[in-house]
Write a structure and sequence with these properties.
Length: 251
């Protein structure tokens, strides 16, 4: 169910659902020589993917004109752009993706487009959130129907029996964990996909606002001795404190 404020926002997103079409078109037109350029991709995240307008203390004031634009991704552009480039270089052999905690869907949509560009055989993506499917995700599913690309949306808890059975069946090769930010919830999500995913991504791993997921990431880096890891934690100097952060465990 949508709470009152989220329902109002859903109506807003229905009015701007063409942002999804615009992003997909613009992303697919990026030349090969620019899509791996960190400076270019940071500007693309800011200007074309667009930024969320929640928790603005986590974003630099100099980007204020881009708050509440595009796909509303709740990401630090310096971190997210470098992470997307890393995926382009390292996810070519994987064909399925799971995102736990997709919110409005911006990060999910952008990541799917990157994975599809990285691997023409990328076939399946799963998104889960407590909210019902948003207009952005609904539109992206419509766009993808004729592209031999299957999207599953699950409304509910990642700890439900139905979702656990879905994951056992689908066995996603790449997973992005951004749901329950309590340490027990985030750890349970990790254990759910650990046996299937070759790339496991954790969000909010370097954040004053999310100390439990930050602590969990620090633990996993030390405990998972057979895995490699990379972090995307660069901050904007104008922001007081440290926020967000993307950590990747990979084989």
């Amino acid at each position: 169910m949508w709470i009152k404020d989220d329902y109002t926002r859903r109506l807003h997103f229905l009015n701007i659902v063409s942002n999804v079409d615009r992003f997909v078109e613009q992303f697919r037109l990026i030349p090969d020589d620019l899509i791996y350029d960190e400076v270019y991709m940071e500007r693309f995240v800011i200007e074309k993917i667009g930024l969320n307008n929640e928790a603005l203390n986590e974003q630099p004031v100099e980007l204020s004109e881009y708050y509440g634009t595009g796909l509303y991704v709740w990401q630090n552009p310096k971190q997210f752009s470098k992470y997307l480039i890393w995926l382009l270089n390292n996810a070519q052999k994987y064909s399925s993706y799971l995102e736990i905690g997709c919110r409005w869907g911006g990060t999910f949509i952008a990541t799917c487009e990157v994975l599809r560009r990285s691997n023409p055989n990328f076939k399946t993506a799963i998104a889960i959130d407590l909210m019902e499917k948003t207009p952005f995700i609904e539109r992206y599913i419509e766009i993808s129907q004729n592209d031999n690309f299957e999207i599953h949306y699950f409304q509910g808890s990642s700890r439900s029996e139905q979702f656990i059975e879905l994951i056992k069946k689908q066995k996603p090769e790449i997973s992005f964990i951004d749901g329950d930010h309590r340490i027990m919830g985030a750890l349970q999500d990790y254990m759910l996909v650990r046996d299937y995913s070759k790339i496991i991504v954790h969000h909010d791993i370097f954040s004053d606002a999310c100390q439990e997921t930050t602590f969990l990431w620090d633990c996993l880096k030390k405990l998972e001795k057979t895995k490699n890891y990379i972090e995307f934690i660069e901050q904007y100097p104008s922001v007081k404190g440290k926020y967000l952060g993307i950590g990747v465990l990979f084989d």
